[in-house]
Write a structure and sequence with these properties.
Belongs to the aldose epimerase family. The chain is mostly beta strands and about 300 residues long. It contains no helices and 26 strands.
Length: about 300
């Protein structure tokens, strides 16, 4: 399994895998040592059996689609139901299970692509996806996700790294989190949105003022600005030495506290901050959603900025 290691003048190192186009390792120099920022398997072959989407690109459409039902124009498609009766992260063999091909690679960037056939997991296609990772000298990481299909189809991939800025195998409970979100999308028992937008005020999801995460279980979509110029989230290490600042042009952010992480990791050892469209957006006309076609290719941007105290 091929790996691509990106570096910058700040001494940061990011390792990307062909499998799932995922992030295996991201470390930065801190004092006289290095600090790992994400969870990853030491042996790349372990990603072939991973069920936690560890570091991977997920899609074609990130998160859940209720009943796996997708209506495009007058045509209804049945997507693979891989989480009970619902569709999750593009199906069991979504983008996270694909062997991507490197189109270009230099010391600080890599672009990978893969094509999903017409009917893959139920999606119309074929659709070509690409992801560009660019590691910058200011310790920021720019990610560009693109899709182009020969017919109208749904697209909305994202990245699924688990962050732990402590550099230790410990829960993320003592991390501090700030979220630039006034509302969230409540869900039913199957984690499918009800269609409402509710205020975070007086709820466990109110991180408008930076606070310690604690033991609260998070697996929710927050409504963010979808503006690259506005920070959506800031995660701070327990020792206050590192901050991760995230921005994206996606209108939603799934915050997942990793409660179901399995061995060799422990529950809550990492937190996911996943820019996305709202879950089940195609089935809620008032939820923002975008499609891709030959005339209208899809593109989304994510920026991670690492800051040191």
């Amino acid at each position: 399994m091929q790996q691509f290691t990106l570096t910058n003048l700040s001494g940061d190192r990011l390792t990307i895998l062909e499998h799932g186009a995922g992030m295996q390792s991201w470390s930065v120099p801190l004092g006289n040592s290095r600090r790992e920022l994400i969870l990853g398997y030491a042996n790349p072959q372990q990603y072939l059996q991973d069920n936690s989407y560890l570091g991977a690109v997920v899609g074609p459409y990130a998160n859940r689609i209720g009943g796996g039902l997708l209506l495009l124009g007058q045509q209804q498609y049945q997507l693979q139901q891989n989480e009970g009766r619902h569709h999750l992260h593009g199906g069991a063999n979504g983008l996270h299970r694909q062997q991507w091909q490197a189109l270009q690679h230099n010391s600080s960037s890599v672009k990978l692509c893969c094509t999903l056939a017409d009917g893959h997991s139920g999606y119309p296609g074929p659709t070509e996806f690409s992801v560009l990772y660019q590691l910058n000298a200011d310790s920021s990481l720019d990610v560009t996700l693109q899709a182009r299909s020969v017919q109208l189809t749904l697209a909305g991939p994202t990245l699924h790294p688990y962050f732990n800025l402590s550099g230790k195998a410990e829960p993320i409970n003592q991390h501090q989190l700030w979220l630039n979100a006034e509302h969230y999308t409540p869900t039913d028992s199957g984690k499918i949105p009800t269609g409402q937008l509710l205020p975070v005020e007086d709820s466990a999801l109110d991180f408008r003022h930076c606070k310690t995460i604690g033991t609260v279980q998070l697996d929710h979509n927050l409504v963010v600005s979808g503006n690259m110029q506005q920070t959506a989230a800031i995660l701070t290490s327990p020792d206050q030495q590192l901050r991760l600042r995230l921005s994206s042009d996606y209108p939603g952010l799934q915050v997942y506290s990793g409660d179901y992480l399995a061995a060799p990791f422990s529950p809550r050892q990492g937190i996911c901050l996943e820019p996305q469209f709202y879950p089940d957006a195609p089935n809620h006309s008032h939820f923002p959603c975008r499609y891709t076609s030959p005339e209208q290719p899809f593109v989304a941007h994510i920026r991670y900025q690492v800051e040191k105290s």
